[in-house]
């Protein structure tokens, strides 16, 4: 392998070597990158991380939401299948036997039973991160393991974004250990600016979150609202298992309670959250009946346009249309 002058892995800071015309890697090949239009995109990493999906049956706005149908699959199984396209192990932390039974049946049908684990958790937990905390304790995961929290109501997303976010987290954490989480932002569109279901976020000039709100932030006191680029938060988090355990032990905070946003508890206790911007279609979340109808329409359009929609290669290409890391 030929060493590339002046180029290092953003995660390990080790020199990069040319594998072929389109791929580079560290000498030990623990980190492999695709060169795409002059940009290096992480393809594989031996960092120890997995996806954990919190999913509870109760939902105030959409009853039995995880079991709601999106084409032939229900919502939670669609999320699981999208998550599997990252190549990672997937854990579902749930409070309902119906969800566990549905996932097990689905995983058997799709022949992915060895890559999907379901963990039963208490129904009284406050939020998804607390549910994940209980699951990782039951699995006895090491404190240093990286956890990717993918919400159980986000059926469609580009799996490459997950790997990009992990790489971003490891890079910023190495520079500033007080950064305990990384998450995703994208430009809010149309009604998302004012919708309480679309959480907005503002950051400092270093890309660290200052505040999350269901209201439009910042408030346009001295400028036209159309001049502001509002950032919508996508509910995906990366953190280490140790911090997930610490989070559960932290006292609930006033702002997190007022906005009903679990990530505000992190900020109120003085920890930092890094934001990675993405562009394009972005994550599709299902909070309401209208959102569910949109997800059903997206899947139906894909089925009509694709000769073999269940083919894994076709499905990965479909998911790749849901945004990518913003490169500036």
Automatic annotation (TrEMBL):
One of its GO terms (biological process) is lipopolysaccharide biosynthetic process. One of its GO terms (cellular component) is cytosol. It catalyses: 3-deoxy-alpha-D-manno-oct-2-ulosonate + CTP = CMP-3-deoxy-beta-D-manno-octulosonate + diphosphate. Its EC number is 2.7.7.38. Pathway: Nucleotide-sugar biosynthesis; CMP-3-deoxy-D-manno-octulosonate biosynthesis; CMP-3-deoxy-D-manno-octulosonate from 3-deoxy-D-manno-octulosonate and CTP: step 1/1. InterPro entries: Cytidylyl_trans, KdsB, Nucleotide-diphossugar_trans. Transmembrane segments: none annotated. Keywords: Cytoplasm, Lipopolysaccharide biosynthesis, Nucleotidyltransferase, Transferase. The keyword Ribonucleoprotein does not apply. CDD domains: CMP-KDO-Synthetase. Belongs to the KdsB family. This is 3-deoxy-manno-octulosonate cytidylyltransferase. It comes from Psittacicella hinzii. The lineage of its organism: Bacteria, Pseudomonadati, Pseudomonadota, Gammaproteobacteria, Pasteurellales.
């Amino acid at each position: 392998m030929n060493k590339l002058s002046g180029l290092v892995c953003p995660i390990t800071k080790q020199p990069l070597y040319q594998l072929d015309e389109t791929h580079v890697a560290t000498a030990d090949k623990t980190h492999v990158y695709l060169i795409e239009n002059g940009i290096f995109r992480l393809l594989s990493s031996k960092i120890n991380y997995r996806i954990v999906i919190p999913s509870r049956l109760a939902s105030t706005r959409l009853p039995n939401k995880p079991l709601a149908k999106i084409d032939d699959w229900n919502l939670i199984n669609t999320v699981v299948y999208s998550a599997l396209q990252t190549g990672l192990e997937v854990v579902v932390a749930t409070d309902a036997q119906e969800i566990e039974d549905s996932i097990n049946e689905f995983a058997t049908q799709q022949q992915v039973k060895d890559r999907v684990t379901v963990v039963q958790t208490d129904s009284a937990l406050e939020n998804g991160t607390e549910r994940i905390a209980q699951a990782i304790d039951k699995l006895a995961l090491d404190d240093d393991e990286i956890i990717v929290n993918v919400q159980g109501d986000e059926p469609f997303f580009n799996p490459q974004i997950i790997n990009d976010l992990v790489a971003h987290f490891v890079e910023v954490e190495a520079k500033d250990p007080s950064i305990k989480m990384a998450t995703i932002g994208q430009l809010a569109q149309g009604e998302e600016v004012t919708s309480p279901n679309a959480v907005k976020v503002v950051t400092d000039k270093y890309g660290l979150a200052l505040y999350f709100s269901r209201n439009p932030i910042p408030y346009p006191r001295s400028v036209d609202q159309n001049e502001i680029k509002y950032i919508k938060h996508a509910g995906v988090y990366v953190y280490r298992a140790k911090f997930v355990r610490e989070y559960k032990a932290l006292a609930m905070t006033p702002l997190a309670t007022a906005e009903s946003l679990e990530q505000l508890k992190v900020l109120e206790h003085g920890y930092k959250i890094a934001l990675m911007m993405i562009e394009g279609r972005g994550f599709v979340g299902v909070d309401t009946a209208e959102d569910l109808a949109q997800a059903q329409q997206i899947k139906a359009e894909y089925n009509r346009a694709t000769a073999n929609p269940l083919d894994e290669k076709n499905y990965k290409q479909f998911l790749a249309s849901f945004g990518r890391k913003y490169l500036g």
